[in-house]
């Protein structure tokens, strides 16, 4: 069964997003060797989960992830199937978080109770959610097992004061200890009540954002048994079927330009093998592509749809630019400076991350290093480099 909704886990590094994902889904999403070695998320992590509600019990204790109620032992009904997107919280990985946010229908903002709020990436992630239109948010106040009751209450006051005036101002705050699965039932109840499944248009031309791409063949595999490249992401609208011919934009680089690629859908995995993918949840599409094209996330950020039905590929953007008054996610207060001609900015367009060279600050003209596939009205997150990392400084609306 395909998931109905994508929910992102966002927040500062080491606040327990991956641990919470495991508490909810049973899946540890840090699989990459470098993630395991460093103990942080580097790439987007994915996990599916089913929420159940007991037929007899009431309140938070009625919710869980098992078919049997933990309180009364009775049968529980499937409430909803959810896909989780676990985003990195480290300051140097903001680009990865932004690409993941483009696929989120709602978000869990994870804030550790044993640290002062807000931490730099807590503030930056909240602003990113607002920019990219993620409005339905639940706050998970994690690690309450590490503080006293009085400190937990004080931390919750800090969280509420921080959220005033933001997109998450009215979000519920649920205290949890993800490491011990404590109060997870209350968190699920808050998710079910505050992050609804959005309405989807399955009759429209399909449009898929790609967050990851893979070569699933093992080293040394015989050529006769090779499988085509795999694209992972979410379908925003329409339907895709096994056997469909699809187009991928902007495609692959040939000399100094990018060319769209066409291929056939060989398989679809959406919580299991299926013939058809519909909007909602995360999907993986097996294709007839040479796996060399999809290995190591080579096609992450690409847009997938039917041939001739996708938005144009743009090498130059014209943006209506909106800059913040100050620098978000920095411990040092800095005023925002206007865009400068010739400076390089990081731009997040859908699930695509690219670098734009400012050609005309007044017109918001950006010459792109990596072209993007987008339509007028799309929101673009704008980041500027400060020292060794990129900071979010505002957003633009594509003209």
Largest sheet: 7 strands, mixed
The number of distinct β-strands equals 22
Helix proportion range: 10-25%
How much of the sequence lies in strands comes to 35-45%
What is the annotated CATH architecture of the largest domain? 3-Layer(aba) Sandwich
Low-confidence stretches: 30-43, 89-93
Structural class: alpha+beta
Give me the CATH superfamily of the largest domain: P-loop containing nucleotide triphosphate hydrolases
**Major sheet strand order:** 3-2-4-1-5-6-7
The separation of the N and C termini measures 39 Å
Helix segment tally:
7
Shape: globular
CATH class of the largest domain: Alpha Beta
CATH topology of the largest domain: Rossmann fold
Mean residue pLDDT: 88
What's the short story on this structure?
With 399 residues, the chain is of the alpha+beta class. 16% of the residues lie in helices and 38% in strands. The chain has three domains: 5-194, Rossmann fold; 207-305, Beta Barrel (Elongation Factor Tu (Ef-tu), domain 3); 313-398, Translation factors (Elongation Factor Tu (Ef-tu), domain 3, Beta Barrel), CATH 2.40.30.10.
């Amino acid at each position: 069964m395909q998931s109905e909704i994508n929910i992102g886990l966002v927040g500062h590094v080491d606040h327990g997003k991956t641990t919470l994902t495991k508490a909810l889904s049973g899946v540890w999403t840090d699989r990459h060797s470098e993630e395991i070695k460093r103990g942080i998320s580097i790439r987007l992590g994915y996990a599916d989960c089913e929420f159940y509600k007991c037929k007899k019990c009431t309140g938070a204790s009625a919710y869980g992830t098992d078919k049997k109620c933990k309180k009364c032992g009775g049968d529980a009904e499937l409430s909803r199937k959810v896909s989780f997107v676990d985003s990195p919280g480290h300051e140097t990985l903001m680009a990865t978080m932004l690409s993941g946010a483009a696929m989120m229908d709602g978000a869990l903002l994870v804030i550790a109770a044993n640290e002062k709020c807000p931490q730099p990436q807590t503030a930056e992630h909240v602003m990113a959610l607002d920019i990219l239109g993620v409005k339905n948010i639940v706050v998970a106040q994690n690690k309450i097992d590490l503080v006293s009751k009085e400190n937990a209450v004080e931390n919750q006051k800090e969280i509420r004061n921080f959220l005033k005036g933001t997109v998450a101002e009215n979000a519920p705050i649920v205290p949890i200890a993800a490491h011990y699965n404590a109060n997870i039932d209350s968190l699920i109840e808050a998710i079910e009540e505050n992050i609804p499944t959005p309405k989807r248009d399955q009759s429209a031309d399909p449009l898929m954002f790609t967050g990851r791409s893979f070569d699933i063949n093992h080293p040394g595999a015989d050529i006769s048994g090779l499988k085509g490249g795999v694209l992972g992401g979410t379908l925003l609208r329409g339907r895709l079927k096994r056997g469909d011919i699809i187009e991928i934009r902007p495609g692959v680089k040939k000399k100094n330009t990018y060319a769209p690629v066409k291929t056939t859908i060989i398989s679809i995995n959406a919580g299991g093998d299926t013939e058809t993918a519909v909007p909602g949840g995360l999907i993986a599409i097996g294709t007839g592509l040479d796996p060399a094209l999809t290995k190591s996330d080579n096609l992450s950020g690409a847009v997938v749809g039917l041939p001739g039905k996708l938005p144009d590929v743009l090498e130059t953007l014209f943006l209506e630019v909106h800059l913040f008054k100050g620098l978000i996610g920095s411990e040092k207060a800095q005023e925002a400076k206007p865009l400068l001609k010739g400076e390089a900015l990081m731009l997040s367009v859908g699930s695509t991350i690219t670098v734009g060279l400012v050609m005309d600050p007044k017109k918001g003209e950006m010459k792109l290093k990596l072209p993007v596939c987008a339509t007028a009205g799309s929101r673009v997150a704008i980041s500027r480099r400060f020292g060794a990392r990129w900071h979010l400084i505002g957003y633009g609306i594509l003209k």
